[in-house]
Amino acid sequence: MPDSDNKPERLQKVLAQAGISSRRHAEKLILGGHVTVNGEKIVTLGSKVNPHDQIAVNGKFIKKSHELHYYILNKPVGVITSASDPRGRKTVLDLFGDAPARLFPVGRLDYDTSGLLVLTNDGNLAFRLTHPRYGVNKTYQVWLPGPVSEKAVTQLKEGVELEDGKTAPALVKRLKPAMKGGLELLEITIHEGRNRQIRRMCEAAGYPVAKLKRVRFGPLVLDAGLKPGEYRKLNDREVRLLKQEVGLL
After folding, report:
1. CB neighbours (10 Å) of residue 12?
2. What percentage of the chain has pLDDT greater than the value 90?
3. Quick one: CA dihedral 57, 60, 63, 69, positive or negative?
4. Are residues 104 and 163 part of one domain?
5. Mean pLDDT, range 52-74, rounded to an integer
6. Ranges assigned E (strand) in 106-152
7. What does the alpha-carbon distance between residue 55 and residue 29 come to, in Å, rounded to a whole number?
8. Residue 199 — φ and ψ, nearest 5°?
9. Is there a domain that residue 4 lies in?
């Protein structure tokens, strides 16, 4: 809820802070007519509410005070980054058997990608971490059929033309050369968040991805001892660094 007892806040922000959903999904709930304030349906984004207002989602009043939780997960391959799946596939939330609150993944890792994923019920932080304006860096280890040409590396660094426009410049490092026609390991850092962006960039450069793992998200680095499917709470310092990253502190 708002920091000040008397300060009005945008409705979608209050919903996110109450752990109802991410801020973007909260906007969809409002536009879809699922939210009422003091019994009146609100369908306009940007509407502000006061602390004493009674807010309901699908007829159920929200709790305005709650404890915030922050986790880091080593997402395994074969799990989708979603709260639920109509096809019955395992989701990242299925890995949390003892979650103390309703958590939401921050951003996405596709089905075949593993690595660092943040989950939280802090909708305001999640919104900023995924919004393009804040440009949070994401670093991946990328295995490609080698050897990868210098031309392709330069192309990845300078930006790749995709169907939805040219990508921003990326940081690219060679970590391990290909042995006897095997896979070469690169490290690629981007700040955009387009769908399947690393895979699409490498394919456009002529090198389909064989394996992809995210190892860094903003100030967070994937724990060496955190096995696929395992998770842990973020400590106070890590939460503070995340908030500093997007201007919340």
Report:
1. 28
2. 68
3. negative
4. no
5. 85
6. 114-120, 138-145
7. 13
8. -60, -45
9. no
Tell me what pLDDT residue 2 has: 37
Number of structural domains the chain divides into: 3
Question: How would DSSP label each residue in 63-106?
Answer: PS-----EEEEEEPTT-BSSS--TT---BGGGG-TT-SS--EES
Give the residue carrying structure tokens 């993944």. Answer: 105
Domain range for 39 is 9-61
- Per the residue annotation, which of 5, 110, 112, 122 is the catalytic one? 110
Q: What is the pTM of this model?
A: 0.77
- Same domain, yes or no, for 145 and 211? yes
Read off the pLDDT of each residue in 11-22 and give the average, rounded to a whole number. 79
- Judgement on whether residues 168 and 208 belong to the same structural domain of the protein: yes
> 60 pLDDT exceeds 80?
yes
Higher pLDDT, 6 or 175: 175
Catalytic residue status for 110: yes
Who contacts 70 (Cβ-Cβ below 8 Å, separation ≥6)? Answer: 118, 119, 120, 122, 233, 234, 238, 239, 242
| Residue 211 burial class via C-beta count within 10 angstroms: exposed 0-12, middle 13-18, buried 19 and up | middle
Instruction: Report helix angle 123-130 to 23-31, nearest 10.
Output: 100
